[in-house]
Amino acid sequence: MQRPWTRRELIGAAGTLLALGTTAAYGAESPGTRPIKILAISGSPRKGKTTATALGVSLEAARAVDPETIDVELIELAGLKLPLEPALDLPLEPGQRDDFPALAAKLTDPRVAGIIVGSPVYFGDMTSLCKAMFDRWRAFRKDFALSNRVGGALAVGAARNGGQENVLRSIHLAMFGQEMIVVGDGRPTSHSGATLWNNYKDDILKDEPGIATAKNLGRRVAEVARLIRRA
């Protein structure tokens, strides 16, 4: 039988745990930390509008967690061609354009540790463009190429309660299918993700509560991604 710990040993162990907890809380890095990348993908067919702007806010917050080791990139699906045929193992028509392989290369880059997907609310759900991208993610399930990437979701609606949470749920379900680690928007709101209201003629930055959730989401994705890459 193992002998009981002495009081001195217990105090020493508690001190070690406290030190570890403090390190994790403040996100201290060990020497030689490798840079990571956080991607944001806008599923809006309107390039450079509210969803892209909100995702830019998330990326700024993600990079601010550690500007020296975190790189960020915004990808907009607007204008891209993402045909469904390859997801069904069907051939493309002669001359049919397919932009997914280039997108897939960015997503599976080993440096990518976090992916935030945003979509406006169209009839209570994500856009068809965003869904088309997720349908093409079937290719990643062959070897679960996105496994353990941190995932987050952002939604922009025409009303404060205009279906944003349903969009977040749809995005989360697609990420769960890739064995991703899905997080919400973190403290202090700490809900399902970023939810924004476009009630100001496309000036989404005026939605202060919504912008706060976008910042919290970006920060949370970056924090968890760093912890996972350090493990």
CATH architecture: 3-Layer(aba) Sandwich
Q: Count every helix, treating DSSP H or I runs of 4 or more residues as helices.
A: 6
Cα(first) to Cα(last) distance is 32 Å
- The gross shape turns out to be globular
Percentage of residues in helical conformation: 25-40%
Report mean pLDDT, rounded to a whole number: 89
Radius of gyration, in Å, reads 20 Å
CATH superfamily: Flavodoxin domain
Largest sheet: 6 strands, parallel
How many strands in all?
6
Question: What ranges have pLDDT less than 50 throughout 5 or more consecutive residues?
Answer: 1-32
CATH topology descriptor: Rossmann fold
Q: Please, how many domains?
A: 1
Please identify the structural class as seen in this structure.
alpha/beta
The share of residues in extended strands comes to 15-25%
Q: What is the CATH level 1 assignment?
A: Alpha Beta
What string gives the helices and strands in order?
A: HEHEHEHEHEEH
Which secondary structure elements does this structure contain, and how are they paired or packed?
Elements lengths: L6 H20 L9 E7 L7 H15 L5 E7 L23 H8 L4 E9 L7 H9 L13 E8 L6 H13 L4 E2 L11 E4 L10 H23 L1
Notable traits:
231 residues, alpha/beta, Rossmann fold, six-stranded parallel sheet, 6 helices, 38% helix, disordered N terminus
